Amino acid sequence: MKWKRLWALSVKDIKDYTKSKYIVFSIIVLPLVIGAIVPLQVMLYSGSFGAGENSDESSVTFMDNILSGAIDDWEDFTNQAKSTIGIGYIVLVLVAMMPIIITSVIAAETIAGERERKTMEALLTTPLSEKEIVTGKIISSFIPSFIATTVAIVTFSLVMDIILYPMIGRIFFPDLISIIFLFVISPIITIIAVEGLILVSTRVSTVRDATQLGGLLLIPLLMLIGLQVVLFFYNMILGIVVAPIVLLIIAAGLFKISTSLFKREKALVKLV
Amino acid sequence: MSKSVMETQGLTKNFNGLQAVNALDLKIKESEIFGLLGPNGAGKTTTVRLLTGMLEPSSGSASVLGFDSKTHSNQIRENVGILTETPSLYQRLSVRDNLDFFAKVHNIPKEERDLRVKNLLKQFNIADKENESAGKLSKGMRQKVAIARAIIHSPEMLFLDEPTGSLSPEAAKMVRELIVDLTKNENRTVFINTHNLSEAEKLCSRVGILERGKLIAIGKPSELRSLLHTDIITVFRFKTWDKQISDYFSTSSIKITDEDKEKLSVTLKLENIEETTPKIIKDLSRLDLDITEVRHNRPDLEQIYLELVNGDNHQEEMEESK
Question: Where exactly are the structural domains of chain A?
């Protein structure tokens, strides 16, 4: 693979879809909404801004069971702080799902969009190999979701720490779990999503078809994220070491499948 | 003698039982402008896609610039320029970004890339459109950008698929002039797919006629003329109409194909026109008939094409009826 020209394709794609205000809107607004507005809203309803210890005792006990092993000073926290941190982790799962949503829009746009706007044939006339085309598309779909994730986690951490600081007297987010979750697990799952969506996009003719089919693909991925959350709190080693390796193997397998299934001839015949 | 830069042997492509290209044998020499003619669906685009390694042949082989289309297709695409039937520009990107992307995938360094983009925009008179979105350009402009894109890496050989296909006459003329410039000044080998016969006649040194995937004729336009059964048509026009005109031709061995008393003309099919024409002029002058015009109509490429294509269809129908 020639990385320079592969990168040229990714840059071209990013330049191209960032001209679409809908895509830019989703890349900018989604992380801000999920990173700031959602946690604020959830906290507001849960009573985290109230003065009293109004958290449900049974839910705090549940969180005690799960988080006391993972957070050293957990026992020192008040019930209010515990429930706020617990809600924070739930929002964190939403943040982890966000790049998959962004990716689904972009991945569909980059391959099915090329076909829909009749630029695919010109792309196929270039010396880019099939593998380079697929890899370039994966990179161009991954980058914005990674940026969006970073924006979301920074926003989320800021909002959460502003709420939590008066309760626990220290900065809590981002903690080790959230960093690993958002910058290791979530990116790998995003890559799996991109590969899956690119696989789908190579088989349909319009962006709409790709997005609709891609929607189906999101269900198992969201389940994967859920499974990963359970793993984290059930066994830290499993969550931090084993799961990412398994996910990487899945991503590598999907990469092999998507590059071997994307053929110039098939892509051209689909254009006719 | 110029070397061959492209060669096919029995090149065949089937799509689900449909033979799009049928045992194509073709050789193109260096610096030649070759035109592949044929109606829509004849297999012209499939041929270009096979030659540039975008499709794999069902059987047979093709080599372009010494690279086998099956095993070294990327090397072919690195060294040739391809203009697809539709300009296929990235509409949201600027003209510059469109050209820059194609220069980048051909690994042209930044400084060189900038220079080439600048020069091409200037050469094609679109320098003022550099930062405009490709989607805002007219069809003719878009085609110019697409041609510039195809030659940005200075390819040795160009494949142009219907370069003037959907353009207005003015834009088509402009594109034809560009092609002539590119071949005359820059010595490139050009392979043009077209169904525009007058375009092929103006631009191409050699043409091939493709009909349902099969190459039914190949040669210089003048050579193809000689393949025809169509004789050269000679028209005699007179100052006034006289009965003697009809009498003369009815008694001679010359066959009149048309006699038009209103237009004061007779149309003849002559064999050996160099000898027969002066004899007729002499005979008619002796009869005091004023000849105002003698014109030989050679069949143009369109007539050749129609005769060959229709002849081929007719032959097939005959075979089928047997």
Answer: 3-271
Measure CB to CB from residue B74 to each of A11, A122, A129 and give the nearest one. A129
Q: Residues of A with CB below 8 A from B88's CB?
A: 118-122
- Residues B33, B205 contacting (CB under 8 angstroms): yes
Of A117, A128, A265, Cβ closest to residue B55:
A265
Interface test with B, best of A9, A23, A125 (most B CBs within 10 A): A125
CB contact under 8 A, A15 and B56: no
Write the CATH number of the domain with boundaries B233-297: 3.30.70
* 3-state DSSP percent of chain B in helix, strand and coil, to 5: 40, 30, 30
Q: Is A12 within 8 Å of B90 when comparing Cβ atoms?
A: yes
**What sign does the dihedral B89-B94-B99-B102 (CA atoms) show?**
negative
Task: Name the pTM for this structure.
Answer: 0.81
Fold of the domain built from segment(s) B4-227 = Rossmann fold (3.40.50)
- Give chain B's end-to-end CA distance (angstroms, integer): 46
Domain range summary for chain B, segments of one domain joined by +: 4-227, 233-297
pLDDT, tens digit, 9 for 90 and up, residues B72-99: 999 999 999 999 988 889 999 999 999 9
ipTM confidence: 0.83
* Angle at alpha carbon of residue A194, lines to A193 and A196, rounded to 5°: 65
